[in-house]
């Protein structure tokens, strides 16, 4: 009975009972590891967030979360540090650091403005796409698709559009004096390296970034040395783009908070009055008493 029949066709052996495994679901074979999305289409109360923000390689998780929260708020909502610290469990210091990250990468801009009543307020602008203008949209009508028309041989060829410069850090308070100093620093870079000759448009774009450095207790000489040191030996195709990258990537941390220094108390010592030679307490010699300072009271005449 144990002799095999050579006329029987070979067949697969049955699985051993002890090695039987439960059946796996179909999606587990396609995606053995990683996240599985179970998405539902939103029709109301939603905000469109770009992957350049949600998957930013340099922003922290807190900065990305604050950017998403700010972009979901209506126009006019308060987004100052105190309001955000009351809304979220993070401390005001961490909220402030995350907002500075968003400013550095162009997702946020905060400027101080003076109202008609004389009060200084902070104006916050949120950008969902850094480097894009507010009026630029992708919904502009496109020409109908057709066979390409032949260009005349004498028609002038248009130059390709120049790419926008990278975003630069923004100062907390862009005063005219600070921006003027920043522009002078940029204009003087060509004296150190002739390749750093900037146009007026490039200097206006880079001036807020230099002002953000000057706000952090850096001298104009220190900023100029940081921008001109270790430059590549090759010719610079676009020096303004290189300076914008350095202003963003090498932005120094803000200076530590220092309490205001109170003036020393005034010490009064005994001196003689220069007018009546009476002894008085004064900061130094040469002082007069109150009677000598006020002078004699004019006499009143009666008729």
UniProtKB/TrEMBL annotation:
<feature type="compositionally biased region" description="Basic residues">
    <location>
        <begin position="18"/>
        <end position="29"/>
    </location>
</feature>
<feature type="region of interest" description="Disordered">
    <location>
        <begin position="1"/>
        <end position="29"/>
    </location>
</feature>
<protein>
    <submittedName>
        <fullName>Helix-turn-helix domain-containing protein</fullName>
    </submittedName>
</protein>
<feature type="compositionally biased region" description="Low complexity">
    <location>
        <begin position="148"/>
        <end position="158"/>
    </location>
</feature>
<feature type="region of interest" description="Disordered">
    <location>
        <begin position="284"/>
        <end position="303"/>
    </location>
</feature>
<feature type="region of interest" description="Disordered">
    <location>
        <begin position="126"/>
        <end position="167"/>
    </location>
</feature>
């Amino acid at each position: 009975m144990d002799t095999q029949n050579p006329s029987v066709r070979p067949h697969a052996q049955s699985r051993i009972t002890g090695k039987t495994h439960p059946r796996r679901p179909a999606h587990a074979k396609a995606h053995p590891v990683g996240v599985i999305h179970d998405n539902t289409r939103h029709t109301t109360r939603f905000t469109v967030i770009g992957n350049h923000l949600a998957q930013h390689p340099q922003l922290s998780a807190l900065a990305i979360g604050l950017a998403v929260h700010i972009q979901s708020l209506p126009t006019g909502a308060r987004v100052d540090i105190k309001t955000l610290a009351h809304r979220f469990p993070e401390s005001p210091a961490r909220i402030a650091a995350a907002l500075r990250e968003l400013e550095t990468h162009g997702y946020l801009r905060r400027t101080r403005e003076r109202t008609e009543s004389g009060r200084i307020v902070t104006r916050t602008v949120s950008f969902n796409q850094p480097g894009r203008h507010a009026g630029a949209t992708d919904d502009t009508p496109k020409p109908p698709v057709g066979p390409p028309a032949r260009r005349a041989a004498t028609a002038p060829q248009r130059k390709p559009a120049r790419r926008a410069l990278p975003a630069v850090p923004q100062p907390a308070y862009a005063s005219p004096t600070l921006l003027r100093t920043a522009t002078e620093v940029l204009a003087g870079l060509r004296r150190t390296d002739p390749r750093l000759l900037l146009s007026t448009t490039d200097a206006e774009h880079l001036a807020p970034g230099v002002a953000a450095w000057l706000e952090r207790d850096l001298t104009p000489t220190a900023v100029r040395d940081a921008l001109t040191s270790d430059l590549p030996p090759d010719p610079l195709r676009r020096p303004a783009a290189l300076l914008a990258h350095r202003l963003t990537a090498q932005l120094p941390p803000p200076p530590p908070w220092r309490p205001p220094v109170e003036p020393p108390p005034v010490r009064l010592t005994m001196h003689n009055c220069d007018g009546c030679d009476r002894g008085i307490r004064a900061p130094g010699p040469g002082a007069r008493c109150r009677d000598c300072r006020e002078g004699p009271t004019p006499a009143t005449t009666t008729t």
